[in-house]
Write a structure and sequence with these properties.
The protein is an alpha+beta fold. Helices cover 21% and strands 33% of the residues. The protein is built from four helices and nine strands.
Length: 131
């Protein structure tokens, strides 16, 4: 299994969340998720300014073998989307924890970050998902 960065938070639906330290977070899908999907061919990004509730579907990621919904890990407002993915969706496969990020949210409640999985807890989820 690939390395799961310890500085990120995670969801059971395989999104990662980076606390930017300014009330915003960056969201992407985990390496495990992109491996499961295969070659990503399209990412449907949310709209800047869109308000999301935690758990709400905010986009779709399509690969050569499947389409998968993206879920907001936290409530907040979309303040930026990764427009690079419109022309280069494969960036999600190449750099899931870097250039393959999907959106940035201004959080409605920064303490909600504490409810997300840490790297150890997510490792167990990802391992169970492979069984």
């Amino acid at each position: 299994m690939s390395t799961i960065p310890a500085n990120l938070r995670y969801t059971e639906s395989h999104e990662w969340i980076l606390d930017n330290g300014d009330g915003t977070v960056t969201i992407g899908i985990t390496d495990h998720a992109q491996e499961s999907l295969g070659d990503v061919v399209f990412v449907d990004l949310p709209e800047v300014g869109q308000m999301l509730e935690s758990g709400e579907e905010f986009g779709v990621i399509e690969s050569v073998k499947a389409a998968s919904d993206l879920y907001a890990p936290l409530a907040g407002e979309v303040v930026e989307v990764n427009e690079t993915l419109e022309d280069s969706p494969e960036t999600v496969n190449e750099a899931p924890y870097g250039g393959g990020w999907i959106a940035k949210l201004k959080l409605a409640d920064v303490t909600a970050l504490d409810k997300l999985l840490d790297a150890d807890a997510y490792t167990k989820v990802a391992e169970a998902d492979q069984d």
